[in-house]
Design the sequence.
């Protein structure tokens, strides 16, 4: 069978990335231009600034990726593009670039949902086995997706308010940690003890999540302690918060695995880089005797490699867009 | 010699393919909120309808602003990726220059783009297209002062409401004239082709 090379482009938030993936599984070349240091000054991603950097970077990143792969655009079979969800101004840079390349080189244009990308980051490390459960945790998403075959997504649970990563960043700010605070909480928690009492959110029968209540509980706790003149022990608060947040994820995932007769679970999204979550998921998988796949750290944050990997399966599924394709800031995974 | 012209700095798509002496094909269409979706396919239709290959273009002239931030980026991204892919010389011009050039009279030309909150993007050009006031983001009252001090007849060109300016010429780009004026302007590497917003982002302004 002929090898299929997909060029992926990702620009949904603050990373401009281009990658080439062979047959949906082999990372040939990946280039990521991150703006994290730029947005740090502002305590979070500023959409207009992100868009301005994407347009500056796009051709540079394209050129570096092709040079790294030692390939030409003519060698590419199709172009995969993150059409959404994400910051609209940022998404549009990748989209217009992909459409222009599709026109010039007469290559099929494949629209990829950002979350499909995070799920398929796992196919870069090993083959996906169905029926599987994808646990997607990031700054913008907290979802449980059931898949019976390639590129067929069935969302069975999601956050009703904040995403888990968003909650981490907000709690980090309350504790006084610099943006992005999520990874810093994970580090602090590792040396702290669970001493503060926080409510486990949304203990119901659904597979849904809620994190805004937990965030408020942390903020209230900090205010109350301050008013009483008590010093917050940051390590312990981080450990207590992390323990509760992960407990909220694990109890829903456990139920979903049991009820849906799941054989294999994959963790995806930026928060998949969280050590405590990785440990808890590993423990759960062992307990329930299911296979667990966690992407390596480099594929957890936003990258075009995962978009190109997902793009391969979308291409096989016949999902080809015409040049009228538009970006969408919000769209459900179908 | 074929030159591709692209301006998406407003809600309009102004695009054309120009030969040495004539317009082969052009589009002047208000795409409103569908600009991001329709700009590229509309440009592509100029090629397909006239059986022109993308490789046949010898130069790209793209408007780099000022105007709608998102709009500018759409045209710039298309143009710089096109130029990068096929190694085609590319150059940028200001939307205000394009506006001033499109009016055929010998007066002073004052192109205006609404920048909201009592500001405009503006420039003042004499009859020889020499900038008396360089393209800038300027408070309307300040610009009105500058206009008052002009001792010659002038013409205001704008497609925006801007009711404080009574007599205005509507902007209808003379793309042939614009392209002929700038076709020998120095080319840039596509990596260096970037929007010229003439304004910092709000977050940057607050931080300053």
Sequence:
């Amino acid at each position: 069978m002929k090898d299929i090379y997909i060029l992926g482009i990702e620009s949904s938030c603050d990373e401009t990335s281009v990658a080439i993936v062979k047959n949906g599984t082999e990372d040939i070349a990946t280039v990521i231009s991150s703006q994290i240091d730029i947005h740090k000054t502002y305590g979070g991603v500023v959409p207009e600034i992100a868009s301005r950097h994407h347009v500056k970077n796009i051709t540079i990143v394209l050129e570096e990726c092709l040079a790294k792969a030692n390939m030409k655009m003519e060698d590419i079979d199709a172009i995969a593009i993150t059409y959404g969800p994400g910051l609209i101004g940022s998404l549009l840079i990748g989209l217009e670039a992909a459409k222009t390349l599709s026109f010039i080189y007469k290559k099929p244009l494949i629209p990829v949902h950002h979350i499909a990308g995070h799920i398929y980051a796992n196919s870069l490390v090993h083959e996906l086995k169905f029926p599987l459960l994808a646990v997607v945790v990031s700054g913008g998403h907290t979802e449980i997706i059931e898949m019976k075959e390639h590129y067929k997504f069935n969302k069975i649970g999601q956050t009703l308010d904040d995403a888990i990563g968003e909650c981490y960043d907000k709690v980090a700010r309350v504790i006084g940690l610099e943006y992005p605070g999520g990874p810093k909480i994970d580090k602090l928690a590792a040396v702290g003890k669970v001493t503060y009492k926080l409510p486990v959110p949304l203990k119901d029968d659904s597979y849904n999540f809620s994190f805004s209540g937990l965030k408020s509980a942390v903020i209230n706790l900090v205010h109350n302690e301050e008013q009483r003149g008590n010093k917050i022990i940051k390590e312990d608060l981080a450990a207590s918060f992390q323990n509760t947040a992960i407990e909220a994820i694990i109890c829903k995932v456990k139920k979903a695995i049991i009820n849906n007769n799941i054989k294999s679970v994959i963790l995806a999204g930026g928060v998949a880089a969280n050590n405590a979550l990785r440990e808890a998921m590993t423990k759960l998988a062992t307990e329930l005797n299911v296979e667990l796949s966690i992407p390596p750290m480099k594929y957890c944050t936003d990258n075009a490699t995962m978009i190109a990997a997902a793009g391969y399966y979308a291409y096989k599924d016949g999902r080809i867009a015409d040049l009228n394709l538009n970006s969408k800031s919000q769209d459900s995974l179908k | 010699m074929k030159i591709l012209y692209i301006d998406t700095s407003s809600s309009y798509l102004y695009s054309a393919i120009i030969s040495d002496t004539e317009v082969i094909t052009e589009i002047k269409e208000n795409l409103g909120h569908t600009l991001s979706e329709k700009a590229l396919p509309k440009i592509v239709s100029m090629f397909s309808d006239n059986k022109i290959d993308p490789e046949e273009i010898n130069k790209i002239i793209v408007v780099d602003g000022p105007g709608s931030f998102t709009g500018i980026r759409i045209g710039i991204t298309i143009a710089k990726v096109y130029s990068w892919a096929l190694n085609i010389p590319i150059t940028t011009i200001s939307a205000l220059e394009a506006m001033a050039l499109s009016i055929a009279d010998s007066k002073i030309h004052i192109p205006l783009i609404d920048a909201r909150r009592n500001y405009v993007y503006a420039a003042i050009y004499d009859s020889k297209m020499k900038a008396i006031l360089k393209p800038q983001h300027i408070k309307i009252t300040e610009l009105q002062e500058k206009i008052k001090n002009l001792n010659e007849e002038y013409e205001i060109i704008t497609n925006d409401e801007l009711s404080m300016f009574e007599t205005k010429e509507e902007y209808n780009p003379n793309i042939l004239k614009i392209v002929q004026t700038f076709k020998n302007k120095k080319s840039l590497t596509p990596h260096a082709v970037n929007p010229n917003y003439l304004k910092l982002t709000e977050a940057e302004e607050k931080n300053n």
Remarks:
- Strands of chain B lie at 3-7, 12-18, 23-30, 59-63, 90-93, 108-116, 119-125, 131-139, 154-157.
- The CA atoms of residues 202 and 208 of chain B lie 10 Å apart.
- The interface with chain A takes residues 36-41, 44, 54, 69-70, 73-74, 76-78, 80-82, 84-86, 190-191, 194-195, 197, 201-204, 207 of chain B (CB under 8 Å).
- The mean pLDDT of chain B is 96.
